[in-house]
Amino acid sequence: MDMKKLYEYQNLRGDYFKLREKVNSTARKEELLEWKGRIEQINREKEELKKLIDEKNKLVEKIDSLIKDIEVKERDMEKQLYEGKVVNPKELLSMQKKLNELGEHKKHTEDAYIKENEEVFSLQRELENKKEELMKEYRRYQYEINKYKQNKEIDKVNLNELAKQIKEMEKEIDSSLLEIYFKYTKKLGNSVLAIVKKGKCEGCNIDIPKVDLGDVKAGNKLVICENCDRILVINL
Ligand SMILES: [Zn+2]
Hints:
This protein is mainly alpha-helical. It has two domains: 3-171, Helix Hairpins (Orthogonal Bundle); 178-234, no CATH class. It has helices at residues 3-24, 27-83, 89-172, 175-188, 210-218, and strands at 193-197, 200-201, 231-234.
Protein backbone atom coordinates (compact mmCIF):
# COMPACT_ATOMS: atom_id res chain seq x y z
CA MET A 1 0.00 0.00 0.00
CA ASP A 2 1.47 3.26 -1.08
CA MET A 3 0.62 5.25 2.00
CA LYS A 4 3.34 7.76 1.21
CA LYS A 5 1.59 8.77 -1.98
CA LEU A 6 -1.75 8.92 -0.21
CA TYR A 7 -0.28 11.11 2.49
CA GLU A 8 1.13 13.46 -0.18
CA TYR A 9 -2.31 13.43 -1.75
CA GLN A 10 -3.92 14.44 1.54
CA ASN A 11 -1.41 17.29 1.94
CA LEU A 12 -2.08 18.49 -1.57
CA ARG A 13 -5.81 18.46 -0.91
CA GLY A 14 -5.13 20.38 2.29
CA ASP A 15 -3.26 23.04 0.32
CA TYR A 16 -6.11 23.16 -2.16
CA PHE A 17 -8.81 23.65 0.48
CA LYS A 18 -6.77 26.30 2.26
CA LEU A 19 -6.25 28.26 -0.94
CA ARG A 20 -9.88 27.84 -1.97
CA GLU A 21 -10.96 29.30 1.37
CA LYS A 22 -8.64 32.26 0.79
CA VAL A 23 -9.97 32.81 -2.75
CA ASN A 24 -13.57 32.65 -1.53
CA SER A 25 -12.99 34.83 1.51
CA THR A 26 -14.66 38.24 1.29
CA ALA A 27 -12.96 39.74 4.36
CA ARG A 28 -10.37 41.76 2.46
CA LYS A 29 -12.92 42.84 -0.13
CA GLU A 30 -15.16 44.15 2.64
CA GLU A 31 -12.25 46.01 4.19
CA LEU A 32 -11.50 47.65 0.86
CA LEU A 33 -15.16 48.56 0.37
CA GLU A 34 -15.22 50.17 3.80
CA TRP A 35 -12.09 52.09 2.88
CA LYS A 36 -13.73 53.26 -0.34
CA GLY A 37 -16.68 54.47 1.72
CA ARG A 38 -14.34 56.52 3.92
CA ILE A 39 -12.72 58.07 0.84
CA GLU A 40 -16.14 59.00 -0.54
CA GLN A 41 -16.92 60.62 2.81
CA ILE A 42 -13.71 62.72 2.62
CA ASN A 43 -14.71 63.73 -0.90
CA ARG A 44 -18.16 64.82 0.30
CA GLU A 45 -16.55 66.88 3.06
CA LYS A 46 -14.28 68.48 0.45
CA GLU A 47 -17.28 69.39 -1.72
CA GLU A 48 -19.11 70.84 1.29
CA LEU A 49 -16.08 72.99 2.10
CA LYS A 50 -15.98 74.25 -1.48
CA LYS A 51 -19.66 75.19 -1.28
CA LEU A 52 -19.14 76.96 2.03
CA ILE A 53 -16.19 78.93 0.61
CA ASP A 54 -18.28 79.97 -2.41
CA GLU A 55 -21.04 81.20 -0.13
CA LYS A 56 -18.58 83.06 2.09
CA ASN A 57 -16.94 84.64 -0.95
CA LYS A 58 -20.31 85.93 -2.12
CA LEU A 59 -20.90 87.37 1.34
CA VAL A 60 -17.47 89.06 1.28
CA GLU A 61 -18.32 90.58 -2.13
CA LYS A 62 -21.63 91.85 -0.76
CA ILE A 63 -19.94 93.44 2.25
CA ASP A 64 -17.35 95.00 -0.04
CA SER A 65 -20.01 96.60 -2.20
CA LEU A 66 -21.79 97.76 0.97
CA ILE A 67 -18.60 99.53 2.07
CA LYS A 68 -18.33 101.18 -1.34
CA ASP A 69 -21.95 102.39 -1.05
CA ILE A 70 -21.22 103.88 2.35
CA GLU A 71 -18.13 105.63 0.96
CA VAL A 72 -20.19 107.16 -1.85
CA LYS A 73 -22.71 108.44 0.71
CA GLU A 74 -19.88 109.78 2.87
CA ARG A 75 -18.35 111.70 -0.04
CA ASP A 76 -21.74 113.15 -0.97
CA MET A 77 -22.33 114.22 2.60
CA GLU A 78 -18.84 115.74 2.93
CA LYS A 79 -19.31 117.60 -0.34
CA GLN A 80 -22.62 119.08 0.88
CA LEU A 81 -21.12 119.89 4.26
CA TYR A 82 -18.05 121.71 2.98
CA GLU A 83 -19.51 123.27 -0.17
CA GLY A 84 -20.85 126.08 1.94
CA LYS A 85 -24.38 125.98 0.56
CA VAL A 86 -25.83 124.90 3.84
CA VAL A 87 -25.45 127.56 6.47
CA ASN A 88 -28.15 126.68 8.95
CA PRO A 89 -26.21 125.53 12.07
CA LYS A 90 -28.93 123.07 13.06
CA GLU A 91 -28.88 121.53 9.62
CA LEU A 92 -25.07 121.52 9.63
CA LEU A 93 -25.06 119.76 12.99
CA SER A 94 -27.52 117.15 11.78
CA MET A 95 -25.39 116.56 8.67
CA GLN A 96 -22.27 116.17 10.80
CA LYS A 97 -24.15 113.70 12.97
CA LYS A 98 -25.21 111.69 9.93
CA LEU A 99 -21.63 111.73 8.65
CA ASN A 100 -20.43 110.36 11.97
CA GLU A 101 -23.10 107.67 11.85
CA LEU A 102 -21.96 106.70 8.36
CA GLY A 103 -18.39 106.50 9.65
CA GLU A 104 -19.48 104.20 12.47
CA HIS A 105 -21.49 102.06 10.08
CA LYS A 106 -18.50 101.82 7.75
CA LYS A 107 -16.21 100.79 10.60
CA HIS A 108 -18.54 97.97 11.66
CA THR A 109 -18.92 96.82 8.08
CA GLU A 110 -15.16 96.80 7.60
CA ASP A 111 -14.77 94.72 10.77
CA ALA A 112 -17.28 92.23 9.38
CA TYR A 113 -15.36 92.22 6.09
CA ILE A 114 -12.10 91.37 7.87
CA LYS A 115 -13.77 88.68 9.96
CA GLU A 116 -15.42 86.99 6.96
CA ASN A 117 -12.20 87.21 4.95
CA GLU A 118 -10.27 85.51 7.72
CA GLU A 119 -12.87 82.77 7.79
CA VAL A 120 -12.50 82.29 4.03
CA PHE A 121 -8.72 81.94 4.43
CA SER A 122 -9.10 79.41 7.20
CA LEU A 123 -11.67 77.44 5.19
CA GLN A 124 -9.35 77.46 2.20
CA ARG A 125 -6.55 76.05 4.32
CA GLU A 126 -8.95 73.38 5.54
CA LEU A 127 -9.90 72.63 1.93
CA GLU A 128 -6.24 72.24 0.92
CA ASN A 129 -5.68 69.79 3.77
CA LYS A 130 -8.79 67.88 2.80
CA LYS A 131 -7.64 67.65 -0.83
CA GLU A 132 -4.25 66.40 0.29
CA GLU A 133 -5.82 63.82 2.60
CA LEU A 134 -8.10 62.68 -0.22
CA MET A 135 -5.22 62.30 -2.68
CA LYS A 136 -3.12 60.37 -0.18
CA GLU A 137 -5.93 58.00 0.76
CA TYR A 138 -6.97 57.53 -2.85
CA ARG A 139 -3.45 56.65 -3.99
CA ARG A 140 -3.00 54.16 -1.17
CA TYR A 141 -6.42 52.68 -1.87
CA GLN A 142 -5.65 52.30 -5.60
CA TYR A 143 -2.39 50.57 -4.78
CA GLU A 144 -4.06 48.16 -2.35
CA ILE A 145 -7.00 47.35 -4.63
CA ASN A 146 -4.66 46.61 -7.54
CA LYS A 147 -2.56 44.40 -5.33
CA TYR A 148 -5.70 42.65 -4.12
CA LYS A 149 -6.94 42.01 -7.67
CA GLN A 150 -3.55 40.77 -8.83
CA ASN A 151 -3.19 38.41 -5.88
CA LYS A 152 -6.69 37.11 -6.47
CA GLU A 153 -5.81 36.28 -10.07
CA ILE A 154 -2.59 34.55 -9.02
CA ASP A 155 -4.45 32.57 -6.34
CA LYS A 156 -7.05 31.45 -8.90
CA VAL A 157 -4.33 30.25 -11.27
CA ASN A 158 -2.60 28.39 -8.44
CA LEU A 159 -5.91 26.88 -7.34
CA ASN A 160 -6.53 25.50 -10.83
CA GLU A 161 -2.99 24.17 -10.89
CA LEU A 162 -3.51 22.39 -7.56
CA ALA A 163 -6.79 20.91 -8.79
CA LYS A 164 -4.95 19.55 -11.83
CA GLN A 165 -2.18 18.09 -9.67
CA ILE A 166 -4.77 16.42 -7.41
CA LYS A 167 -6.46 14.82 -10.42
CA GLU A 168 -3.07 13.63 -11.72
CA MET A 169 -2.15 12.13 -8.39
CA GLU A 170 -5.45 10.29 -8.12
CA LYS A 171 -4.37 8.27 -11.16
CA GLU A 172 -1.25 7.14 -9.32
CA ILE A 173 -3.06 5.88 -6.22
CA ASP A 174 -4.71 2.48 -5.97
CA SER A 175 -8.41 3.06 -6.58
CA SER A 176 -9.61 0.85 -3.70
CA LEU A 177 -7.33 2.74 -1.31
CA LEU A 178 -8.67 5.99 -2.63
CA GLU A 179 -12.20 4.74 -2.14
CA ILE A 180 -11.50 3.95 1.51
CA TYR A 181 -9.88 7.36 1.90
CA PHE A 182 -12.97 9.14 0.58
CA LYS A 183 -15.23 7.08 2.79
CA TYR A 184 -13.23 8.30 5.78
CA THR A 185 -13.27 11.95 4.64
CA LYS A 186 -17.03 12.01 5.22
CA LYS A 187 -16.33 11.64 8.92
CA LEU A 188 -12.85 13.14 9.28
CA GLY A 189 -12.74 15.83 6.63
CA ASN A 190 -9.33 16.19 5.03
CA SER A 191 -7.51 14.73 8.01
CA VAL A 192 -7.92 11.01 7.34
CA LEU A 193 -4.28 10.00 7.61
CA ALA A 194 -2.31 10.63 10.78
CA ILE A 195 1.44 10.28 11.15
CA VAL A 196 2.78 8.19 13.99
CA LYS A 197 5.41 10.19 15.82
CA LYS A 198 7.31 8.86 18.83
CA GLY A 199 4.73 6.11 19.16
CA LYS A 200 1.83 8.57 19.28
CA CYS A 201 -0.94 9.30 16.82
CA GLU A 202 -0.38 12.85 15.58
CA GLY A 203 -4.12 13.25 15.05
CA CYS A 204 -5.09 12.85 18.70
CA ASN A 205 -1.78 12.49 20.56
CA ILE A 206 -2.65 9.12 22.07
CA ASP A 207 -0.10 6.26 22.42
CA ILE A 208 -0.43 3.55 19.79
CA PRO A 209 -0.38 -0.07 21.06
CA LYS A 210 2.90 -1.84 20.23
CA VAL A 211 1.20 -4.42 18.07
CA ASP A 212 -0.46 -1.74 15.94
CA LEU A 213 2.83 0.07 15.68
CA GLY A 214 4.38 -3.03 14.16
CA ASP A 215 1.57 -3.29 11.64
CA VAL A 216 1.93 0.33 10.66
CA LYS A 217 5.64 -0.17 10.11
CA ALA A 218 5.06 -3.32 8.06
CA GLY A 219 2.57 -1.47 5.89
CA ASN A 220 0.64 -4.53 4.84
CA LYS A 221 -2.74 -3.51 6.18
CA LEU A 222 -4.63 -0.45 7.26
CA VAL A 223 -4.23 0.39 10.91
CA ILE A 224 -6.83 2.64 12.46
CA CYS A 225 -6.22 4.74 15.55
CA GLU A 226 -8.51 3.38 18.25
CA ASN A 227 -9.09 6.82 19.64
CA CYS A 228 -9.69 9.11 16.64
CA ASP A 229 -10.38 6.63 13.82
CA ARG A 230 -7.65 7.99 11.58
CA ILE A 231 -5.60 5.77 9.33
CA LEU A 232 -2.11 5.60 10.79
CA VAL A 233 0.93 6.21 8.63
CA ILE A 234 4.55 5.77 9.61
CA ASN A 235 6.73 8.90 9.67
CA LEU A 236 7.74 9.06 6.02
ZN1 LIG B 1 -5.60 9.16 16.79
